[in-house]
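Entry:
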Amino acid sequence: KVGMRTGTVEAPVFVNAAGAWADELADLAGVRPIDLQPRRRTAILLDPPGGGVLAGMPMVTDIDDAFYVKPEGDALMVSPADESLSPPTDAQPEELDVAIAVDRYERLTGQRIWTIRRRWAGLRSFVSDRSPAIGFDAQVPGFFWLAGQGGFGIMTAPGAARLAAGMIRGRELDEELQALIPKVAPARLR
């Protein structure tokens, strides 16, 4: 049961897919948080040097995962691969992180960057073991966690959606999805 300004809504299942705000939402619902840690990731878009063709260019990252550059449409996306702790918020890029991205790109390529086409930041949320939290809360019936996708949300979304939908609907899951349940169960975090 959820109270809102316009009244109360009741449902047998409440899915907490609030991203960086998932712990705050759980707390409002009287559910013990899972210690979600939102972390800011910064990215910039650059025009390719000399108007170069990007088709077929691979993603390039350093061995420490402290920088990457990859094609993004007709531009290059560059990130310092930062993971700065942040409260849940509308993340904005910090000038220092933008400067670090430019510096790392210039050191890698030997080319000067004079113009940044676009800059932004987003929040990636993690729990202690950096695996997602997908499943019903062991202490609050009907409260379903779908949080902590971290840096893998886009890549794992189809599988996570199949797993969550099957669990919520009480459907039988194939062996592959069934094997994931203990690895993503929110109970492992308490």
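The longest helix spans residues 153-169.
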